[in-house]
């Protein structure tokens, strides 16, 4: 088996140069789909019989909730790859994923709370799903804090990777919380093992928003990682050449 | 596919739920725009600072020779 692609993935310069051409396309695709899904969800999807128009929050709440959990797995897997193979790039991806994931959990908690007010009559309840989600936001904060807590880059990366790996135990808890401690938050309307519990006319814009959110996450993870690569590789010749705007004389990655 | 509201006013108020829905979308889009722009701006600032630093280093090297 040819493992060249795997070793290339470990090269920050290769990643930086490769993703350069992807960024404009991802921007167009992510923001285009986000706008289409938003307009469709806000104006053209039919009103819900029980929740009325407040249900339209679903089009941002659910897709971002999916991504905030996927982001945690990416962060933890990147940390594990960094620990096992001692590669530089996965640690940069791990560090970049933490603020993105934290921002997503803030979106989910805020929109969930706002949606809860007209639907459940409360902004917050210590329900299983909401509490485990709050823990997720603290885990992201923990990784951000550990990244800034050590003088040594290597120690900060290793400590963050271990925290990220330990925290993965929370993801299945979040997922199953609506079944284990069903108090307020409803069980999932969408999952891979059964038919959706949402009418198709409401499902189309939701599907668009889910796809848009995954593409958006890919885009911002690439953008944050590219900025991190430049900061960490500032002593290398290719980054110096890039800063000076001259064609790189450094060795190709 | 048809627009679900009779007027712009009905679209904005959403039967009394407008405040909840629009506030949610404003929060989401503010954060998404921040997430898109923040790394781009930080990269630009970093490259500008590096350029200045490298030019200063080159100048001081030239002066010492």
Describe this structure in words.
The complex is a heterodimer of chains A (253) and B (65). Among the domains of chain A are: 56-190; 225-253, no CATH class. By secondary structure, chain A is mostly helical. In chain A, helix 4 packs antiparallel against helix 5 (88-120) and helix 6 packs antiparallel against helix 8 (170-180). The mean pLDDT of chain A is 90. Chain A is built from 10 helices and no strands. The mean pLDDT of chain B is 94. Chain B is mainly α and 65 residues long. Chain B is built from 2 helices and no strands. Chain B is 82% helix and 0% strand. Chain B has one domain. The A-B interface holds A 27, 31, 34, 38, 42-47, 52-54, 56-57, 60-61, 64, 100, 103, 106-107, 110-111, 114-115, 117-118, 216, 219-220, 223-224, 226-227, 230-231, 234, 239-240, 242-245 and B 1-5, 11, 14-15, 17-18, 20-21, 23-25, 27-28, 31-32, 34-36, 39-40, 42-43, 46-47, 50-51, 54-55.
Tell me the major beta sheet of chain B.
none
Instruction: Please work out how many helical segments of chain B DSSP would assign.
Output: 2
User: In sequence order, what are the helices and strands of chain A, one letter per element?
Assistant: HHHHHHHHHH
- Average pLDDT rating of chain A: 90
Rounded to an integer, what's the Rg of chain A over CA atoms?
A: 20 Å
Gap from first CA to last CA of chain B = 75 Å
The CA-CA distance between the termini of chain A, in Å, is 21 Å
Q: What structural class is derived from the secondary structure elements of chain A?
A: mainly alpha
Low-confidence stretches of chain B: none
Biggest chain pair interface: A-B, 44 and 32 residues
* Oligomeric state, counting identical vs distinct chains: heterodimer
The best one-word shape of chain A is globular
Strand % of chain B is under 5%
What coarse outline of chain B follows from CA principal-axis ratios? rod-shaped
């Amino acid at each position: 088996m040819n493992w060249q692609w795997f070793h290339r993935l470990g090269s920050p310069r290769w990643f930086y140069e490769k993703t350069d051409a992807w960024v404009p396309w991802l921007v167009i695709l992510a923001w285009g789909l986000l706008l289409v899904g938003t307009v469709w969800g806000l104006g053209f999807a039919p009103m819900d019989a029980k929740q009325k128009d407040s249900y339209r929050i679903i089009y941002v709440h659910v897709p971002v909730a999916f991504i905030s959990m996927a982001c945690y797995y990416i962060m933890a897997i990147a940390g594990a790859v960094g620990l096992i193979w001692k590669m530089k790039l996965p640690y940069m991806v791990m560090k970049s994923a933490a603020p993105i994931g934290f921002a997503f959990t803030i979106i989910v908690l805020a929109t969930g709370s706002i949606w809860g007010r007209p639907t459940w009559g409360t902004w917050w309840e210590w329900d299983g799903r909401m509490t485990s989600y709050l823990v997720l936001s603290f885990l992201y904060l923990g990784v951000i804090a550990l990244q800034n807590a050590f003088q040594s880059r290597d120690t900060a990366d290793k400590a963050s990777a271990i925290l990220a790996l330990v925290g993965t135990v929370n993801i299945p808890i979040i997922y199953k919380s609506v079944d284990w401690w069903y108090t307020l938050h409803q069980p999932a309307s969408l999952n891979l093992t059964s038919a959706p519990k949402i009418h198709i006319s409401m499902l189309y814009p939701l599907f668009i928003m889910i796809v848009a959110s995954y593409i958006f996450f890919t885009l911002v993870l690439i953008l944050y990682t590219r900025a991190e690569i430049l900061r960490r590789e500032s002593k290398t010749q290719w980054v110096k050449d890039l800063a000076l705007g001259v064609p790189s004389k450094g060795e190709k990655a | 596919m048809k627009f679900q509201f009779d007027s712009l006013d009905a679209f904005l108020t959403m039967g009394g739920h407008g405040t909840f829905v629009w506030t949610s979308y404003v929060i989401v889009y503010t954060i998404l725009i921040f997430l898109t722009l923040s790394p781009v701006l930080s990269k630009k600032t970093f490259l500008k600072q590096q350029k200045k630093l490298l030019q200063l280093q080159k100048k001081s090297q030239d002066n010492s020779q």
